[in-house]
Amino acid sequence: MTCFDTAFTRCPLIAILRGVQPHEALDIGRVLVDTGFTIIEVPLNSPAPYQSIALLQDTFGDRILVGAGTVTSPDAVGEVASHGGRLVVMPHADLAVITEAKKRGMICTPGVATPTEGFAALHAGADALKLFPAEQLGTKALTAWKSVFPRSTRFIPVGGITPDNMQSYLAAGAAGFGLGSALYRAGNTAADVGRAADRFMKALS
C-alpha cells in the first residue's frame, strides 16, 4: 500500500474524478497512473462512487492512494473504508468527520476557508488542509496563512486550479493541488484526461 507521504512526495497532484462512472473508472485511472499521478479521489456525488473506488483500489491500490471526495458525514467515512478507500477529502472542516477518518486510520484532508477552521482541523488530526475554494481565497490568503500555521502544514489549493496558475500558488507556499474540471469532467475520455494530465505534470516542473 502507498502511504500519503510517499504518494504526495512522488506527485503532489490529487486527481478529482467528479462524475466518473464505474465502467470508465479503470481506463481513466490507468492513464493517470501512467502519467505519474499517485492520488485519486472519487467524489461521493458521482454515479455509484463506491463501486468506482473499489475498482480503482483493487486495480491500482498497491501503487497509488485511492479514496473519496465530498465526504460530509461520519457514516460516509465508514462506507468509503468498507469499499477499500483510504483517503477522505472534504469540502468542509466537520470535526466529527475528521475524527472518524483518523479513528479508522485513514488520510483526511478537510476543506478550510478560514484560519479558525484550519487550526481546528489540524488539532483533530487532519493530514493536510484543502484550501477551498482557492479561486475565492487566492494566493494572498495562502501567503498570510503560511506565516502563522505550523511550518509542517501542507496546504492544497482546490478550485479553479489550471496549469497556468499553479506556479503562483507554489510561490505562495502551496504543497500541492487538487485538480477538478481542468483535469476531468464528466464525459471526458481517457485520452482527454491523459492530455490534460500531461499538461499539469509539465506545469508542476
UniProtKB/TrEMBL annotation:
<comment type="pathway">
    <text>Carbohydrate acid metabolism.</text>
</comment>
<dbReference type="InterPro" id="IPR031338">
    <property type="entry name" value="KDPG/KHG_AS_2"/>
</dbReference>
<dbReference type="Pfam" id="PF01081">
    <property type="entry name" value="Aldolase"/>
</dbReference>
<dbReference type="InterPro" id="IPR013785">
    <property type="entry name" value="Aldolase_TIM"/>
</dbReference>
<keyword id="KW-0456">Lyase</keyword>
<dbReference type="InterPro" id="IPR000887">
    <property type="entry name" value="Aldlse_KDPG_KHG"/>
</dbReference>
<keyword id="KW-0119">Carbohydrate metabolism</keyword>
<comment type="subunit">
    <text>Homotrimer.</text>
</comment>
<comment type="similarity">
    <text>Belongs to the KHG/KDPG aldolase family.</text>
</comment>
<protein>
    <submittedName>
        <fullName>2-dehydro-3-deoxy-6-phosphogalactonate aldolase</fullName>
    </submittedName>
</protein>
